[in-house]
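Box 3.1 A note on notation
Throughout this textbook, protein chains are presented in two layers. The first layer is the amino acid sequence; the second is a token string describing backbone geometry. Keep the layers aligned when reading.
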Amino acid sequence: FISFPLVNQILPATNLTTLLLSFKSLIILLSVIIFGSLVAAIYPALILSSYNPAKVLKGSFKSTKSGIKLRKVLIVLQCAVSIFLITGLFTVLSQIKYMQGQELGMDTNKVVVISRPTLNNSMLSIDVLRKQLLLNSEINSFAASNSVPGREIRWENQIGLLGTDEAELKPSKSIFIRDEMIETLGLKLIYGREFVNSTSDTVSVIINEFAMKSLGITDPDQILNQEIFINSNTRRRVVGIIEDYHHESLKEEIKPVVMLTRPSGFDYFIIKLKNNDIQNQLEDIQSVYNSLYPNNPFNFFFLDDHFNQSYQTEINFSKAFSFFSGIAILISLMGLYGLASFITNQRKKEIGIRKVVGASSMNVLTKLGGEFIVLIVCSFLISCPIALYWSNNWLLSFPYR
């Protein structure tokens, strides 16, 4: 209970009760306790039983060759674990930095997303909200959608060219949008046009490059202004093609996307702001929203923060890795210091003789330090193949790495 706040920062859990009452957590906790108890009891017994009990009890065992050898083995294992954790931590942090630093194909900066009103008296037209908001000169554009970047696109369907058999239709994701969605998110329209009207363009679609290529087409002129099937029974005319963008995090591959439009029925209002005075602009937006949708909660989030939350699992994982790496490094340094002190104490006479015959401090340090260099090299040779194997397997779960 005392340490739970610290643990919760490193490995967040909803609350202590949920964590402890989870069947899976209890099984893991009991397994760790049982395994740790067995190792703690059996390992010392096996080690001590292999040596002379009298020497062990008198403390003379530590000065024997076997005792020093055991110390060195333990130091090598401690250093190997530390090197493994450091390598793993570097891999995790590098992957997180890579994903967060990649171009998404859109601009999530200064984009506010408002959840749609939910109460029964909130059936006011989106056009009224849009007009009221765009009266504010600090608002750049307004859009509405049933999906926002950073979340999985829920609506799945199949697309195909006219004349395509149903079995040959390709899977895709569909998003309903309206107004300046492409401008608001900074998407790149590379061919054709945007939706002009959410009513007259209900028979039109905009697709991404991936969807075009999944249909076996490389030349946009071959599909622009042509009809395609959606789910084998609905025809839509392709009026635009956008450049591929990451609607979901870089933990997922880019998928074929089909954008459609309709007048209403959206889950999110998306607003692009012009300047950095975010707080005042939010207050203005909330004032307009509350006047049009009274008694509805004003739930909003910033798109860039929301998108980065997709990597929260990896960030928590890196925190845990950092924590345990720090402990392992501290234990290894204490072990190395202890071994260095012990060996130096055991070889005081040798050091004194070497100094008398003219050896320099550097020569003495080189002689003593050579043993530690050998131990660290052995640790490196043991841990590196394991660390590289784990890192490669962990990175395989990411399509972009």
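The longest strand covers residues 170-179. The chain is about 50% helix and 15% strand.
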